[in-house]
Amino acid sequence: MATEAKRAPVEGAPSLASRDELREARYHRNGSLVLFAVLLVAPALVYPVFLMKALCFALFACAFNLLIGYGGLLSFGHAMFLGMAGYLSAHAAKDWGFTPELAILAGTATATALGIVTGFIAIRRQGIYFAMITLALAQMVFFFCLQAPFTGGEDGIQGVPRGKLFGVLSLEPSLPMYYTVLAIFAFGFFLIHRIIHSPFGQVLKAIRDNEPRAISLGYRTERYKLAAFVMSAGLAGLAGATKAIVFQLASLTDVHWGMSGEVVLMTLVGGLGTVFGPVAGAFVLVAMESYLAELGAWVTVTQGAIFVVCVLAFRRGVIGELEAWLARRRKG
Amino acid sequence: MPALMGQLLIGLINGSFYALLSLGLAVIFGLLNIINFTHGAQYMLGAFVAWFLLNQLGLGYWWALAIVPVALAVFGMLIERLMLKHLYKLDHLYGLLLTFGLALMIEGLFTQRFGSAGMPYSMPGKLTGGYALGFMFLPTYRAWVIAASLAICLTTWFVIERTKLGSYLRAATENPSLVQAFGVNVPRMITLTYGFGVGLAGLAGVFAAPIYQVSPQMGSSLIIVVFAVVVIGGMGSIMGSIVTGFGLGVVEGLTKYFYPEASSTVIFVIMAIVLMIRPQGLFGQR
To answer: Under a CB-based contact definition with an 8 Å cutoff, are residues B202 and B20 in contact?
Structure first.
């Protein structure tokens, strides 16, 4: 419905709402063009390993943002999808001899299946309870990964081969690997874009803003929430599976609750519910971690401090503040 | 038989910590509508303050029992006045995020200073030793922890459910603006309530110090289990969180005896089952 209305030829002056919508669509298109143009040439200027790490986390944060920003559900357990997919993709590539694209697919499918099971349990409560339930379920997955034989316990799965993409293109050198990661990120990013702007996304936003009203309009809201949860889980899994191939490692760090907290922080810093915010947040935090890496636990302290500052004074995040500033300038 | 009894005892000990912590969470949530993620870090702080008192000032366990809850309560009230106060009009999730950030800061600072290794806290002299009961050996300290936490939990229940002070508190939980209109200073009540909840966490930390190693990470894994306990019990009733806390501790202990592989996950599995059958929790109201 919404997309049809947007495409219909406008007679006379366009209404305010559609002008805003057009402006938003233009802003998203131009912003994405700039983002991907920069990412295409970035390896010439920046260390590719850093870029690949940041892109994996950016996709992870975008997946998380789909759930909180458009579904209004704060998951405090998204690490389970990142980590589980990582384990499966690493295991498939190393022990089953899968090619990288199949290994990533296997990891993503696992995370999606896990999303269906955990989502079914978690969407029974909302708000704070939803956060606590996802956190507890993720902790259960953490203990499973700690004990299951194939995950290698404390050591994780090391020395995962990057292999040859489609059995042809070797991903060992960093440039082919980088552009593969970029393609996967672009796929995820545009998929999320399509989801948000589809009729499904509109219903999701309606549920976020006023669930009783959406129910009274006849929507089975729990199905929409479950669908959003599963999509978010699958995309987080895509990020985790890719990350395991890139770094040739799957470890307990990625299923730990600290990782669930980190993705919340990335999205919060960049801007909850903005399209580019999670990407910006992921780059900021990955950069911060690589610069502060030698300082040990100070990284955790800094992350905690950023949380506190963001919640108290900076709730719109970097991109959110920027958008608000631009909007004010346009009006004033 | 002694092994089973031993696990049951450990279960009751863990249960007393679950009960003390989930009680604090429930009291705080009732009035502030905030899930206090810092609770685990505050429990850890309680154990550390007790350790400092003993090793730096030479003040033993009994002093710690008196000083730590008060010190932690003051710390909590500062947090409430300086930070949490600004969040009451916002979505409740921001309270969770803020307290999560605080927990990271506190845990990070202590890890930086003390590393991840635990430090022992010597058992108070009067509570060493134990009783041979025939079917098992009951260490005095463990018996003391279970009895003391049970007493504290029941006192808290009595104060909240059966006294005038508690009735103000319950009324303010129902409808803060109406209670304020009757001349009760609700903001001060909120501050004191948060302080009380944090004090309880600190007290639990002192209880834990001689049993577990005093380490910066001791709170974070515990708090996640306590969250599951809270979801299972539902935060509606004080007695509910006490019963669920002790009960789940025992269930965990029994699992450790009959099927040790599942002992770290059993509470989460129970949480999933409860959510399927009774989403509002065992003692929760819709």
So the answer is: no
